[in-house]
Each structure stands twice: as C-alpha cells, then as structure tokens.
C-alpha cells in the first residue's frame, strides 16, 4: 500500500515537472519571438542589398566597390562636397536651367511631356531639372537624390525609389552612369511609371563619364534590352553637359484581361 502510494506521488511529481518544463520552454520561445519581431520587420520592409551586376559588351560595371555601402558613400562624397554644391546652386543654376528647359520644350513638341504630366527627375542634386520643368509649365514635378534639397528634391535612392507603382507620367535622368545596378535602376523606373508614361535618359556613348560613375555605356542596346516593359521612342544626339545621347522610352499599356 505504501509502495503504491509512493509510486502515485512520484508519477504525479514527474508529470508536473514535465508540464512545468514545457511551460518554461514555451515562455522562453514566446519571449525570444517578441524580442526578434523588430528585427524580422526590419529585414522584411527595409531595402535589401543588391547582389547582381550587369556587364556586357556594351555595358561595363566599373570595379572597386566592395559593398553597396561603399558605393553609396562614394556618391555622397560628391553630392555633399561643399564646393560643388555652391557651384550647383549659383553658377550652374543659371547656366543649366535654360538648357534643361530647352530639352523639355522639345519633348513637349513631340507630345512626350505635357503641362499636366506628373514628373520625376532622378538623381536631381539641387533640382535644376525640376526648376526647368516648373518654369515651362510642368508644375507637378519633383526630384530625388541621396541628399534632399527642399522643396525641389526629396531624399531617395534611385535603386529603390520611395514611390508607389504607376505614380509618374514622365521620368528624366542624366545619371544612368552612376547606377551600380543598371537593371535595378531601369526596373524602378518602369515600376513607378504609369502605363503609357515616358522615360527620357541622357547618356554618354562617345566619351567616358566622370570618376564617380559606376558604369560605362557604349551603345543604346543594353538600355533597349533592360526596358522590358517599354518601347523605344527615339534616339537622338544632344549636348547635355558631357552627355551626348538622348534615349526615350514609353511604358507599354497593361493588357486588358479577356472575359470568358
């Protein structure tokens, strides 16, 4: 009888110990999960590092960047240079705005740009292109750059534009050569352009760009291949502050689903 009673209490204690152990493990798991949630959300909703580059016969990625952070810092070294920023906001301001305005007026004549267009200038520095657009009547215009310059330029990385899909009617950039990941650069343009929207790039084909450039382009063919959801509108020669070629694309309309 005594032995049976002892065994009963032993099994009850054993079951209670197992239950307590399971509860302890469950509590530890839930506590660890709670502590990990901020890091999980940060990983899911933060821009992810880019791991692929595009190097072909007519598009060469320049070596020398050990990480994306190193690339960004090099670009910031130029954008934050106080001497350059002073030039951009004084001498260059008055020199470049009329030239940009001339380019944009020609695009309006070709019906590629309208006063009602919602426009984005990519890599706009202090916003000369944006100011030019506004002066010719395209008032809903803004620029993005790593360093903001309110009210014309907001902060943004052109590899990961801070805008929703199908936002803009028109996008312009003369900094394609600064893209370390050209496919990502183009992909973000096509993502944020509305269907039937227009993208215009000024690029250098006959000469190499400055020391801050991340790629060298030798023909328009790589651009045609990367703009998978757009049609080539025109290619023409321009004199754009060291850039010699204008390439325009129009994003294709989305197919209308067929009713069964």
UniProtKB/TrEMBL annotation:
A GO MF term: S-adenosylmethionine-dependent methyltransferase activity
Natural source organism: Crotalaria pallida (Smooth rattlebox)
Spans traversing the lipid bilayer: 24-45
Domain Methyltransferase type: 120-201
PANTHER family: F21J9.14
Keywords: Membrane, Transmembrane, Transmembrane helix
UniProt xrefs under CDD domains: AdoMet_MTases (cd02440)
Pfam families to which the protein is assigned, alphabetical: Methyltransf_11
Classification of source organism: Eukaryota, Viridiplantae, Streptophyta, Embryophyta, Tracheophyta
SUPFAM superfamilies: S-adenosyl-L-methionine-dependent methyltransferases
Name under which the protein is recorded: Methyltransferase type 11 domain-containing protein
């Amino acid at each position: 009888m005594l032995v049976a009673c002892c065994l009963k209490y032993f099994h009850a204690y054993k079951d209670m110990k197992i239950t307590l152990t399971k509860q302890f493990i469950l509590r530890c798991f839930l506590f660890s999960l709670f502590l990990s949630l901020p890091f999980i959300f940060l990983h899911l909703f933060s821009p992810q590092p880019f791991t692929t580059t595009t190097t072909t016969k007519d598009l060469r990625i320049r070596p020398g960047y050990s990480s994306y952070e190193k690339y960004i810092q090099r670009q910031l070294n130029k954008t934050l240079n106080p001497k350059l920023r002073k030039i951009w906001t004084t001498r260059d301001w008055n020199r470049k705005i009329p030239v940009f305005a001339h380019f944009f007026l020609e695009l309006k004549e070709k019906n590629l740009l309208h006063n009602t267009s919602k426009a984005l200038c990519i890599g706009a520095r202090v916003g000369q292109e944006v100011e030019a657009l506004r002066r010719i009547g395209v008032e809903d215009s803004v620029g993005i750059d790593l360093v903001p310059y309110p009210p014309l330029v907001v902060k943004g990385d052109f590899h990961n534009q801070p805008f929703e899909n199908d936002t803009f009617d028109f996008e312009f950039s003369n900094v394609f050569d600064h893209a370390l990941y050209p496919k990502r650069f183009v992909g973000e343009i096509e993502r944020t352009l509305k269907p039937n929207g227009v993208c215009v790039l000024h690029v250098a084909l006959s000469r190499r760009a400055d020391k801050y450039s991340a790629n060298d382009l030798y023909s328009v063919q790589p651009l045609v291949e990367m703009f998978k959801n757009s049609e080539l509108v025109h290619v023409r020669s321009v004199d754009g502050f060291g850039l010699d070629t204008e390439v325009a694309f129009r994003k294709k309309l989305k197919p209308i689903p067929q009713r069964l």
